[in-house]
C-alpha cells in the first residue's frame, strides 16, 4: 500500500513534493524530508480535492497527485469549449493538446468525448532523486504526450518491478541506449529520459537536436531506450526502499560482507548483491577469477559477478531484448570519468573508433582503450563480441558516485551531444 507521512524521507517524498509544487501547493523545499511544511501542503491539497485532510499521502491522495507526475489529465469536452479555452483553464497549450490527440480536430470537438490534456511543464525532472515508481510515471507521460513513443516491459527485476523500454522512430537502423545498470549511477536515468523528451520535441517541432534533424532521424532510425536497468538497486540508493523494512535489513547484511564500502551510497549491484554489468557472457569466467582475486567472492554492493552468466533477471532481460531486436549500435550510460570506451579486447567493430572519436570531439570526453581488467562481462563487451557492431560505455561526469543531481545541468550537455551523435550516426551526410 502506498503510504507516505510526516517523518519519512527519500526519493518518494521528493516525488510527492514535486507533485505538490506542480499542483500549486508549494512544500517550500523539494528536499526529500517530510516535515511540517510538506504536511501543511498535503493538507491544503487534500482540502482542495475534497479528501480527508490528514496530511498523509495514501492511495487516494496519491491518485489525486498522480496527474502532476505523469504530466497530463483527461478532460471531458463540454459545450462551447475549444482547445484554447481548455488549455487556458487547465494549464496547457493548444499545441500540446494537438500533439497528444492527433486524431482529434479542434474544429470538430464532440461534446462528452475525452481529451488528453498535457500540462505545460517539462515532464522529466532533473533536480530530484529518482525511483522506479517515478520512472514508470514519466514513461507513461512521455508516451501520452508524444503518441509516437511506445512502451514495452522487457522484463522484471528481482522485486518484480518492470524494466521499461521506450521506442521512437520507424527507420531500419536500430540504436539502443541504456542507463542505470549500476544503482548509484542513477543520475544516468534522468539523462536518458531528458534526451528522449528533447528528441521527441525536435521530432514534433521539426527542429534540430545538437545538429541532428529530428524528423529525418525519426524516419531513418529507430531508437530504443531502457532508462533504468536496475530499478531495485536505484530504489535502495535513493531511499525508496524504507529503512525500517525487512528487505532493507536483508540487503544491509549483504553490505556487511564489505564493511569498507559505504552503504547505501556505494551500492552498484542489484538487490541480490550482483553487479549487473559483470553478469554478461563475455569472458565471464575471467571476470569471476579477477574479482575473486580482489576479494569480491560474495554478494554485496559491487563487483560480485553472480553465480553464472545471466543468472539475474535484469541482465537476462537486456540480453534477450538485444538478441530479439538485433541492434545496430548500443550505448550504455555510466558515471564517472568523462570517458568513452569503444572496444572489447581484440574485438574492434568496424567504424567503432571513428564514431567514438566524433563523440569525444563534441563532448570533450576522452576516447579510451580500457585496460584488460576493466573489460570482462559487461553489456558493451558482450554486444561487441557477439555482434561485431559499435558498442560504447560512456562514463558521464566527474566526482564521487552518486553524482549530485544538483549538478545535472553541468553534466548533461556533454552527454546530450554524445547521444545525438550516436542517434544520428546512420543519417546520410
Offer a few descriptive terms:
429 residues; globular; 8-stranded mixed sheet; 16 helices; 12 strands; 39% helix
Question: Regions with pLDDT < 50 over 5+ consecutive residues?
Answer: none
Number of strands: 12
Query: What is the helical fraction, as a range of percent?
Result: 25-40%
Rg over C-alpha atoms, rounded to the nearest angstrom: 22 Å
Major beta sheet summary? 8 strands, mixed
Alpha-carbon distance between the two ends: 53 Å
Order of secondary-structure elements: HHHHEHHEHEEEHEEHEHHHHEEHEHEH
Output the strand order for the largest sheet: 3-4-8-5-9-12-10-11
Q: Could you tell me the strand content as a percent range?
A: 5-15%
Number of helices: 16
Overall average pLDDT: 96
Form type: globular
Q: Helix/strand/pairing class, anyone?
A: alpha/beta
